[in-house]
Write a structure and sequence with these properties.
The chain is mainly alpha-helical. Among the domains are: about 35 residues; about 50 residues. Helices cover about 75% and strands about 0% of the residues. The protein has five helices and no strands. About 0% of the residues are buried.
């Protein structure tokens, strides 16, 4: 692929900014650049190591997204195409239940009927104290 000319690069950057007219596209870019330069020069914002790390992180994320985006999209679309096929296969298999389900069904119905006849479990709540802390203090012997 041939290298784009500087004019084509500039046009692609300007066209990637969301807006309708050239004035609003370039105005936002110039305003953002000017405000950033003013904030840094008047020391409203100080560029420190966290800023350098954040910029580096975002550069790495952008590079990974650019290089891994196409293979990931192809992989995801392949799984999206396979999903309905597997879903329909599972629905077809549910229409004819397997043999083990027929064997287990009576046990399930028995356990459901016995579950309703079992008594409730005892509460694990601690019994409340009948004495208040004040009454215990009054019974202590003073030295």
């Amino acid at each position: 692929m041939p290298e784009p000319t500087p004019d084509e690069k500039a046009a692609s950057i300007i066209n990637s900014v969301p807006s309708n007219s050239l004035w609003t596209k370039t105005g936002g870019l110039v305003l953002g650049t000017g405000l950033t330069a003013a904030a840094i020069s008047s020391e409203i914002y100080v560029v420190n190591e966290e800023t350098v790390l954040a910029v580096g992180f975002f550069i790495i994320v952008a590079a990974v997204a650019k290089t891994a985006g196409a293979p990931y999209t192809a992989w995801a679309e392949g799984h999206i195409e396979v999903g309905p096929v597997l879903f329909n296969m599972n629905l077809a298999s549910l229409s004819s239940p397997p043999r083990h389900f027929a064997r287990v069904r009576p046990q399930l119905t028995r356990s459901e009927s016995s579950r309703s006849s079992t008594p409730p479990r005892p509460s694990t709540k601690r019994p409340s104290r009948t004495e208040s802390p004040r009454s215990r203090r009054s019974r202590r012997s003073c030295p």
